[in-house]
């Protein structure tokens, strides 16, 4: 991974073209992708308190009000443009889907099983240059490719102890893999348009790693009144083992994931209007690996809020509309600078089927527009999140 980082930095300093998915996933464990559904994305929240039943990784409390076995599927493509120095380009990414299943235990309990990506390391860079060989100038193309990520698989349990107090726990494991390669190819035609009699063979170096480790979380929700819901969660990330498989991968590595504290609240102002706000904090430093610590972002704070308005009906039920804003800091620096993401969001829910006023299938949609900044590197970001929920919501 050290070689991959070095050649990537060289690519940013020479003339060339950057392409592929967001290169912000090149540092540390990659680009963090929080496993939020479309409702939480649209409201700018942190996934602790929910007004409607949902299936969220790390938060079984969100599933306490499901009335029947429920499955959820969340897809999230994102795309945009970036600039770094004089270079410009486009990127596109499609994260690993978030999958979830919730099974109610009577009217007071629930168990859940979820899987969703936590860190994404899919990015690519292409840099073009030229070298002098045997008195002629030959063009070269260097391609840096990273493919992989880390997925969290979690089992959760939650129970409502009183009408106003509930708690839940999750246990899980990290699983993932990563492959990075550096390929250099030479043009068949020299700069003076003379065809090379003996084309120069290219070369490729690569490395492959696997990731594994434990994780857990504890959630608490308190409803002091019918109009207010408060929630808190503590997530423990354990230690992720990074084991080399082949190529230029060398020694085993261990990265400690810090505790993350989340708090949020929902205020129901009327039957048609609700407000949502949340904040999360974690300290990404002294993670146990020198290479990762060199790009760790230190104290990371994220916050957001939004509103939900339901005054329309569509298809088989109501049509809640949502607006939100979120500002996040990413755990890993990019070219020694902090990375910040700011987005505004809009979303809605379409009830696809219901019986006796109980939604049996619904599609939640959220669209975010914003930016990521790190020094002179800037991205304009568009993100679409779609959650299909089938069961007794």
What does this structure look like?
This protein has 393 residues and is mainly β. The chain has a single domain, classed as Porin (Beta Barrel). Helix content is 6%, strand content 62%. It has helices at residues 2-13, 38-43, 290-293; strands at residues 31-32, 68-75, 77-84, 87-94, 98-105, 109-120, 123-133, 136-160, 165-186, 203-225, 228-236, 239-247, 253-256, 260-268, 273-284, 298-309, 313-314, 317-318, 321-329, 340-355, 358-374, 377-392. A hairpin with a 4-residue loop joins strand 8 and strand 9 (165-186). It is elongated and about 80 Å long.
Summarize the topology.
Layout: H1 2-13, E1 31-32, H2 38-43, E2 68-75, E3 77-84, E4 87-94, E5 98-105, E6 109-120, E7 123-133, E8 136-160, E9 165-186, E10 203-225, E11 228-236, E12 239-247, E13 253-256, E14 260-268, E15 273-284, H3 290-293, E16 298-309, E17 313-314, E18 317-318, E19 321-329, E20 340-355, E21 358-374, E22 377-392
Antiparallel strand pairs: 1-6, 2-5, 2-22, 3-4, 3-22, 5-6, 6-8, 7-8, 8-9, 9-10, 10-11, 10-12, 11-14, 12-13, 14-15, 15-16, 16-19, 17-18, 19-20, 20-21, 21-22
Task: Please name the defining characteristics of this protein.
393 residues; Porin; two-stranded antiparallel sheet; 3 helices; 6% helix; elongated
């Amino acid at each position: 991974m050290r070689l991959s980082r070095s050649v990537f930095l060289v690519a940013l300093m020479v003339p060339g073209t950057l392409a592929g998915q967001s290169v912000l996933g090149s540092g540390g464990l990659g680009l963090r992708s929080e496993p939020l559904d479309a409702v939480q994305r649209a409201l700018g929240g942190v996934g602790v308190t929910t007004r409607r039943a949902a299936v969220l990784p790390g938060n079984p409390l969100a599933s306490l009000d499901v009335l029947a076995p429920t499955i959820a599927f969340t897809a999230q493509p994102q795309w945009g443009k970036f600039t770094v120095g004089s270079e410009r380009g486009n990127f596109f990414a499609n994260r690993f889907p978030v999958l979830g299943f919730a099974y109610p235990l009577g009217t007071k309990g629930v168990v859940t099983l979820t899987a969703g990506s936590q860190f994404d390391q899919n990015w690519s860079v292409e840099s073009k240059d030229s070298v002098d060989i045997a008195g002629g100038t030959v063009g070269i193309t260097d391609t840096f490719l990273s493919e992989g990520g880390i997925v969290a698989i979690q089992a959760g349990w939650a129970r409502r102890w009183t009408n106003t107090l509930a708690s839940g726990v999750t246990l899980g494991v990290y699983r993932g893999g990563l492959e990075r390669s550096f390929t250099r190819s030479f043009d068949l035609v020299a700069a003076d348009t003379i065809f090379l009699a003996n084309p120069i063979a290219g070369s490729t170096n690569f490395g492959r790693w696997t990731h594994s480790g434990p994780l857990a979380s504890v959630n608490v929700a308190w409803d002091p009144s019918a109009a207010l819901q408060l929630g808190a969660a503590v997530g423990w990330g354990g230690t992720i083992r990074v084991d080399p498989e082949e190529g230029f991968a060398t020694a085993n590595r261990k990265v400690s994931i810090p505790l993350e504290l989340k708090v949020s609240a929902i205020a129901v102002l009327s039957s048609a209007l609700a407000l949502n706000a949340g904040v999360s904090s974690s300290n990404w430093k002294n993670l146990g690996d020198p290479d990762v610590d060199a790009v760790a972002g230190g104290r990371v704070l994220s916050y957001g809020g939004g509103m939900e308005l339901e005054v329309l009906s569509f298809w088989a039920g109501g049509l809640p509309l949502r607006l939100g804003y979120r500002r996040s800091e990413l755990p890993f620096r990019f070219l020694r600078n902090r990375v910040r993401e700011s987005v505004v969001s809009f979303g809605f829910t379409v009830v696809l089927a219901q019986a006796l006023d109980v939604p049996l299938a619904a599609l939640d949609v959220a669209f975010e527009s914003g930016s990521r900044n790190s020094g002179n590197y800037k991205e304009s970001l568009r993100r679409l999140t779609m959650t299909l929920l089938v069961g007794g919501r």
